[in-house]
Design goal:
CATH topology of the domain at 2-109: Jelly Rolls
Strand order of the largest sheet: 1-8-3-6
Distance between the termini: 37 Å
CATH architecture of the domain at 2-109: Sandwich
Largest sheet: 4 strands, antiparallel
CATH superfamily of the domain at 2-109: Jelly Rolls
Structural class: alpha+beta
Helix content: 40-55%
Shape: elongated
Length: about 180
């Protein structure tokens, strides 16, 4: 979304003051479980993950890469405590947008609302696919789908996070990979 804006020089001049560019190292927590999300992030370069704590066990819910928007959307929109932690996996450059600036943009530039709705629909579709995959597919099938549809995850994300995302142990992931 930000990259599309930047490509349109006229519109970028209107919006650039709303965004703050940040460079963060790997392992930086941008939002902790239980906090209220007040910022929406757009990744220029790098990788983030969204995860939660399940009785002391770290469960990765989603990965985000260049060109994607990241927030705990329900917390950001409803000002409720988030269920997730958002953390960088590698050094990352991102644009941040405060809730106040986000609301101003949506209220004054209706064309931006359409772009945000597309982000929400895409996120919802991804969550539905992940949910269905966890119900119907075995771990090997989930891994094969990841290889086919999201090779950037395999290439850039540590194995223990991938195992967590697939709902298996790192040892099980290693066995699946070795049987290929």
């Amino acid at each position: 979304m930000v990259e599309k804006l930047k490509a349109d020089k006229e519109n970028w001049e209107k919006f650039r003051l709303f965004f703050c560019e940040k460079k963060i190292p790997a392992k930086t927590v941008l939002l902790k479980e239980g906090e209220i999300a007040d910022t929406l992030f757009f990744i220029k370069k790098g990788c983030l993950r969204m995860w939660f704590n399940n009785d002391g066990k770290d469960i990765t819910f989603q990965f985000f890469f260049e060109g994607q928007a990241v927030a705990s959307i329900d917390s950001f929109i409803e000002s409720q405590p988030t269920l997730f932690t958002i953390e960088s996996i590698e050094p990352t450059v991102l644009f941040s947008l405060s809730r106040e600036n986000f609301n101003f943009i949506l209220n004054h530039y209706p064309e931006m609302k359409e772009g945000f709705n597309k982000i929400l629909y895409t996120r919802f579709r991804n969550y539905a696919q992940l949910f269905l995959s966890r119900i119907k597919d075995n771990p090997r099938k989930r891994y094969e789908d990841l290889l086919k549809n999201h090779p950037e995850i395999i290439q850039r994300v540590p194995q223990h996070y991938i195992a967590s995302y697939l709902g298996i142990t790192p040892i099980s992931l290693s066995r699946i990979r070795n049987k290929k």
